[in-house]
Amino acid sequence: MTQQIVLATASIFGALSIVLGAFGAHALKKKLTSEQLASFETGVKYQMYHGIVLLVLGFNFNPNFSNAVLFFIIGTILFSFSIYGLVLSDAFGKKMKFLGPITPIGGLCLLVGWVLVLLNCLA
């Protein structure tokens, strides 16, 4: 993992969270129930939070945090994008139920990333 990859991924996550947040708030507002919109917003928030974390780790690049960075990237993709898929597929009448178990796996990856950050800080 290089500093450029970490910073590029952080930038992509940040930019996409702005686009998807605006898309959810405006274009999907009439299509989604309040519960679906809240779920979609959760995906956007977690994507932005972890984009910011990756930005901080990228600017303070240390190869010891590479595994944490990897878990943050994988976790964000699995967690946030499975939520987007579940919400959008449900809203358009073709719910992709197979995405349901992916969300908690993504959350677990995010948790592992945070634990790895803690362990590296304590080492």
UniProtKB/TrEMBL annotation:
Keywords for this protein: Membrane, Transmembrane, Transmembrane helix
Keyword flag S-adenosyl-L-methionine: no
Transmembrane segments: 6-25, 46-62, 68-87, 99-119
InterPro entries hit by this protein: DUF423
Keyword Glycosyltransferase part of the UniProt annotation: no
Topology in the lipid bilayer: Multi-pass membrane protein
Cellular compartment(s): Membrane
Chief site of localization: membrane
Family statement drawn from the similarity comment of this UniProt entry: Belongs to the UPF0382 family.
Protein name: Uncharacterized membrane protein YgdD (TMEM256/DUF423 family)
Provenance organism: Tenacibaculum platacis
Upper lineage: Bacteria, Pseudomonadati, Bacteroidota, Flavobacteriia, Flavobacteriales
